[in-house]
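Subject: Cellulose binding domain-containing protein structure
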Amino acid sequence: MRHAHIYLIIGALLATGLFAAPAQAAPVLCEKFGSTTVQSGRYVVINNVWGADTAQCIDVNQNGGFTVTQAAHNKPTNGAPASYPAIYAGCHYANCSTGSNLPMQASASAFNSLRTSVSMSYPSSGTWDAAYDIWFDPTPRTDGQNTGAEMMIWLNKQGSIQPVGSQVGTVNLAGGTWQVWFGNSGWNVISYVRTSAASSLDFTINTFYADAVSRGYAQRSWYLTSVQAGFEPWIGGAGLAVNSFSYGSSGGGTDTTAPSVPGNPTTSGTTSTSTNLSWGAATDTGGSGLAGYDILRATGDAFARVGSSTTTSFTDTGLLPATTYRYRIQARDGAGNLSQMSGTATVTTQTGGGGGGGCAVAATTQTAWNNGYVIQPVTVTNRGTSAISGWTVTFTLPAGHTITGSWNANLSVNGQTVTARNNGNNGNLGPNAATSFGYQASRPNGNTQVPSGYTCRSSA
């Protein structure tokens, strides 16, 4: 089985300063994690010897490419590769190129016109693959490990190596036929392996991402963070070369100006399970127009997107009683540019008294197999100080998944949203009392996702 393509160690080393990533290095990079920029910062080139201690050097082409001039690797082909020397646009562990317009949400209209091309040269010796590595995260992340999807596009390979996971199909895209592989390394890894080798490729990113979304392996709400092209050598690797690389919009006249920062949010009408947010409007001068706002919420240090609004207000529901939440707002334009985050609003929900009470929900995966799973128990607990007479749980079903059965609750499905309501005999719950239900679902073969985003609301 091929590597898990883990960059967690790299991020930790960069963060501690054990390995420096200089903004401008020499034209030949031999440091394990050495990097330099080309074309006035438009792209970043990285040596990135993340899986070995053997020597590797790359000669950087300031016009937009590099050549591996030294590679003394000799790794087993059933494990991780030695490195991933690459050129990229976007952000990789806080090392960002300029003018990439990334991160960008995959639902933005501008995402559809993002295009990239590469031309490569290959040696006749060694064991390696030549591949794009395109990263997506549920948040607009610029540092650390992405946890959404890693989409690899193999133009060529040499030796007995294969992608993460197993083959789940074939597809015709971008003028070629590709094997589709799927695995999970703590995030979804979707690999497209060309059945006939190519030395160049020109495609819109959405061509492959739309296929990944249709298979249930990726989501439109996730953010594209970087577009990388390079090589994974196991044995040798000298002579591998990116001759040219490009990334940008095929639409022309791309808006790269972010909206202004929204006004700081305020809260009102807070109950045990919800709060109302409002904020001052942002403005957009880039030409694509203001498209809306993303609402970010945190209970600890990390903010995560919990919803969006096309107005300057939002009601956040499904909260836990007696819990402190923090909110920030980001503006988004029609090209997918994100503003800086607003200031923070802090609110603590009520304890749940006054007749309604509040409920909490926790779900457990009892069992899972190649194309299905059972979620049981889904535990509903009254966290309020008074009794409740009913509850409603909502959660998100991944694309391509289907509910095939349920028990101890009445389930209904609208798009990807599932709503579970109590039966006649399990809606009445006193303070701290709990009940549970379960369900079974099918999913595309090889998809390892399970539903997420469980929220609970109670009634008096």
